[in-house]
Design brief:
CATH topology of the largest domain: D-Maltodextrin-Binding Protein, domain 2
Order of helices and strands: HEEHEEEEHEHEHEEEHEHEHEEHHH
Radius of gyration: 22 Å
Structural class: alpha/beta
Distance between the termini: 77 Å
Number of domains: 2
Number of helices: 11
Strand content: 25-35%
Shape: globular
């Protein structure tokens, strides 16, 4: 009986060891303080024939779905170029601001290109490539009750999207402002139109574009907080993909790719109200 018991224990140990060392389907897994990151290598992506890219679907002119059902916008044009130069198809996955980190950690996407502002807190969870945009916060409100300073919002309602730098900034710096939070950007702007808040805050590039497209609203605060950058993000530890993206950003920057991208996607919205150089970053060099 003792001999049989030892055999069973030995068999169980072998089974557990085999399970722990088994294949994970061609992906890599890295454990860290923030949990587990599962990601595909550059070779995995090439073999599959497509790269999964998280983008916004409701954030015109940066990432949105047009009337034909196709993804369009400034971020999407960049994503298309990355996929083309990698020799694969771009497989788009719609994301919300609060889902961006989780989508990378879970392996749902290989890359996030969704107006992702670089912050120290986010650097602990994902790896950012070189930047391709400059940004700060802005505030848009109705013309008949225009907000021209953040202090005017004390005791009032400010609409923000969950998981954004606007949510963090006002939580930390203006605790007397009541934040009305939504998951989707479409919901935030609809809430402003419906009067469910006194103003809305997000990246100034976005509020400027939205106000130009919606009569009766203006950006009373066009730059708030520090000037930040927007960059592609990959799962923590996916150094191979990160290095390739950085080389690609430097390469296409030499041909002024992002200024051309601006002219195609942003200039029709901004017109002469915004200088391209106040937004565009070429080759990852912030000036």
């Amino acid at each position: 009986m003792k001999k049989l018991f030892k055999i069973v224990l030995a068999s169980l140990a072998v089974a557990i060891l085999a399970a722990g060392c088994g294949s994970n389907g061609g992906s890599n897994e890295q454990n860290n303080e923030g949990g587990s990151n599962i990601y595909r290598s550059l070779e995995d992506i090439k073999k599959s024939g497509s790269i999964k890219i998280g983008v916004f679907s409701d954030k015109n002119p940066f990432g949105y779905i047009d009337e034909t059902g196709a993804y369009k916008g400034y971020d999407v044009t960049f994503a298309d170029r990355l996929a083309k130069d990698l020799g694969v198809e771009a497989e788009y996955v719609s994301t919300e601001p609060a889902n961006r980190v989780e989508y990378l950690k879970s392996g749902k996407v290989d890359l996030i290109l969704a107006n992702f502002t670089v912050t120290e807190e986010r650097k602990e969870a994902v790896d950012f490539a070189l930047p391709y945009m400059k940004v700060s916060l802005g505030i848009v409100s109705p013309d008949n009750a225009l907000i021209t300073s953040p202090e005017q919002l004390n005791g009032k309602k400010l609409i923000v999207a969950k998981g954004t730098t606007a949510e963090t900034y006002f939580t930390q710096n203006y605790p007397e402002v009541e934040l009305v939070k939504f998951d989707q950007y479409t919901e935030t702007f609809n809430a402003l139109i419906d009067g469910r808040g006194d103003a809305l805050s997000t990246d100034n590039t976005e509020v400027l574009a939205w106000a130009l497209q919606n009569d009766g609203f203006s950006v009373g605060v066009d730059s708030l907080g520090e000037i930040d950058t927007i960059a592609p993000a990959v799962a923590k530890g996916n150094q191979e993909l990160l290095d390739w993206i950085n080389k690609e950003i430097k390469k296409i920057g030499e041909e002024q790719f992002f200024h051309k991208n601006y002219e195609e996607n942003l200039a029709p919205v901004y017109g002469d109200t915004v200088s391209p150089d106040s937004i565009v970053v070429e080759s990852g060099i912030v000036e």
